[in-house]
Amino acid sequence: MKKIMxxxxxxxxxxxxxxxxxxxxxxxxxxxxxxxxxxxxxxxIPDAILLDIMMPGMDGWEVFHKIRERYKDKDIPVAMLTVRxxxxxxxxxxxxxxxxxxxxxxxxxxxxxxxxxxxLKE
Length: 122
Description:
The structure is a single chain. Helices cover 47% and strands 19% of the residues. The chain is built from 5 helices and 5 strands, in the order βαβαβαβαβα. β1 (3-7), α1 (11-23) and β2 form a beta-alpha-beta unit. The protein has one domain (3-121): Response regulator (Rossmann fold, 3-Layer(aba) Sandwich), CATH 3.40.50. The protein is α/β, with parallel strands linked by helices and 122 residues long. α2 (34-43) runs parallel beside α3.
């Protein structure tokens, strides 16, 4: 069973993503902050991470950098999962940081499932 970590400060978003992905047979590891994400990564590396950008404290960009620094020997697919839909944000995520995907909220159930499966194929 593939493990997907979902990092978002909005519990409703985490719950929705968890529900959708679990119905497809994924195990979902919830994290409600960047700090919690990094702490949970110490216990085990998931097969992919869906990471919100706009979070209090440590934003998704900073969390992304820390994941890449700490786990540079692992190729963890990280997709940004965000409401930020400006081209500059997409460019930053996909081309500068080299995120595995850039998923804009709101998203459809089928879109989310398809994109997670594509991320895992990389």
